[in-house]
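anyone seen this seq b4? input:
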Amino acid sequence: MRIVMAEDSSLLREGLVQILTKFGHQVVAAVDNAPSLIAAVREHRPELALVDVRLPPGFKDEGLRAAIALRAEHPGLGVLVLSQYLDADYAAELLEANPSGVGYLLKDRVGDIPEFLGSVQRVADGETVIDTEIVRRLLGRRRGKSSVQSLTPREKEVLALMAEGRSNTSIANSLSVSQAAVSKHIGNIFDKLGLPESGADHRRVLAVLAYLRQ
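predicted toks r here
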């Protein structure tokens, strides 16, 4: 696939270019700031933008802001955001802006090349990918009262795996239950979170957002 990348670290940027190129992808532009990212996407029309959350000049959330703006301008663009820091609010904001074909990974995941490349492909295919460490951190938080608290322990397990972007088949395999059981749990989750009837993928993302924002 054709990829545009924005990463201010020249070492990591070049390393990512080499990895992606080695496995058959075409990095049509590799830049180090948000304005150049936006210009490169407009020029090259890639399938995927790989974006660092913090970019020059402020090194705050310029990359995230650019990613959200690009999703609004190019709805079919897959966006995979890489971050040095774990921030569930960033992940939730990215999902809320446009839920399909987005991902949020910690940069440590790049070291696991098969996992990283799998995430790249899944996002390009329109799936949602959330770093497993965000899910683990959320599971360890002391949570206040929320609609998520009405879920059974098993339903919370299913929702946590949904937040990682797992398919029903993958969830079933992970929990050693049938896919029919997973579908039933997901239906219960939608009902308890008060998610209206709509596309299954849309309700799935809304459920994940409820989980991330609790």
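The mean pLDDT is 84. The radius of gyration is 17 Å. kinda curious what u guys think
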